[in-house]
Specification:
The protein is an alpha+beta fold. The chain has a single domain, classed as Gyrase A, domain 2 (2-Layer Sandwich), CATH 3.30.1360. It contains three helices and four strands. Strands 1-2-4-3 form a four-stranded antiparallel sheet. Strand 1 and strand 2 (40-43) form a beta hairpin. Helix 1 (15-30) runs antiparallel to helix 2. The longest helix is centred in the middle third of the chain and has 17 residues, at 46-62.
């Protein structure tokens, strides 16, 4: 049986502001909408896809308990972020960071 990952972000206090700035920048440049359920929709272009893939890879290292699903749907990229029971607020905070919510933090 594999142990469940710890529900905590491993970014340091020095790293977090840079990561949030990176997330907000791609949101500012390419975010089209956020659904009530928290699904983020972005312009589907190679630059946005690459930026999102970089963020997903980085977030997967510091927050391994989060799951990311990035799919192309027509002219949009759809990103869904999910968390295990009890950690849903962290997924919401991350989605809010893409939307530029200044209060989003982990």
């Amino acid at each position: 049986m594999t142990p469940e990952p710890r529900i905590a972000c491993s970014l340091s206090a020095d790293e977090l502001p840079n990561r949030l700035a990176q997330i907000r920048a791609v949101g500012r440049d390419s975010l089209l909408s956020v659904s009530r359920e928290g699904t983020l929709r972005f312009r589907a272009d190679d630059i946005t896809r690459g930026r999102l893939q970089d963020i997903i890879a980085a977030e997967s290292r510091c927050c391994p308990f989060l799951a990311f699903d990035l799919r192309e749907e027509g002219s949009e990229l759809r990103l869904t972020i999910t968390a295990p029971e009890g950690a849903e607020p962290l997924a919401v905070d991350l989605a809010n960071a893409f939307a530029g919510d200044a209060g989003a933090a982990r």
